[in-house]
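Batch manifest, entry 17 of 40.
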Amino acid sequence: MRLDKFLKNSRLIKRRTVAKDACDGGRIQVNGQVAKAGTQLKVGDAISIRLGEKEIKVKVTALLEHVTKDDADKMYE
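Output type: structure tokens
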């Protein structure tokens, strides 16, 4: 699954276009490397997101195409 789609589906970032802009701005890393929006994720990848002063670190636990709001937080820990 693409990084920008994962960020939107997991609701870490509200919109896919915002996720793409964050990737293009170098604010998102996957496994310690700056990632592009098209980076393919797999279960176990570590994602670091810098938004302003805040930094969020998560580990991918599931790659789901269609997710309800209640299940979105099960995609990462």
